[in-house]
Amino acid sequence: MSQLPLLIRWLGQVDYETAWHAMQQFTDTRGAQSADEIWLLEHPPVFTQGQAGKAEHLLFPGDIPVVQVDRGGQVTYHGPGQLVAYVLVDIRRLGMGVRELVSLIENSLIELLADYTVSAVARADAPGVYVGDAKIASLGLRIRRGCSFHGLALNVDMDLAPFKRINPCGYQGLRMTRLADESDHATSVQQAGTALARILGRRLGHAALEFSEGTTDSHEQ
Questions:
Q1: Are 21 and 205 in contact (CB under 8 A)?
Q2: What angle do CA 144, 140, 36 make, to 5 degrees?
Q3: Three-state secondary-structure class, residue 52
Q4: Residue positions annotated with a catalytic role
Q5: Is pLDDT at 158 greater than 50 in this prediction?
Q6: Could you tell me the CA-to-CA distances from 110 to 8, 166, 182, 207 in Å, in that order?
Q7: Residue 3's pLDDT band (boundaries 50, 70, 90)?
Q8: How many other C-beta atoms are found inside a 10 Å radius of the C-beta of residue 213?
């Protein structure tokens, strides 16, 4: 059990590159006693291409910008109505490997979705969380200096049409779904994020959670 609190920050809608560079700075400047953080936010429409990303999976991005990023995985889409949770934790301090962290995030999403009466599963061959044959949440992480950044994206109540402009996560014809279509329980992105953060905090072994609202500048040491 970590004695440091887990800081949960609701940031609202943030430009993708602004959040990305803030994550990098946070990871590069945090120390051994820095608290772990989870940033909850939404992005304006953007496609992001991971380090292993292949250009052929971008079918016709059109007017939506494409950003090459330093996380794992292929191409995905972010937009309003999607919960993005950036998981900024010291896995070395937690005694955890990256595969263990991926499983923890997937299982946290599955637990959250169960609370909305949605039965979801993880797949060994393709990271993420699925409802039937449709993907509802994507994962992509980067580990640097023993710490994670980037995280997960859960489709809450967003326009899914832009996913048709790509092969999501590198899978041709992969169907995407969203919580609004799978559950009768209405929720907002912020409400889903707060509930997910509580589950993540418990599974990560943090004794206390601290919630705040702010900007990507509010994390500075």
A1: no
A2: 50
A3: coil
A4: 169
A5: yes
A6: 20, 25, 13, 22
A7: confident
A8: 12
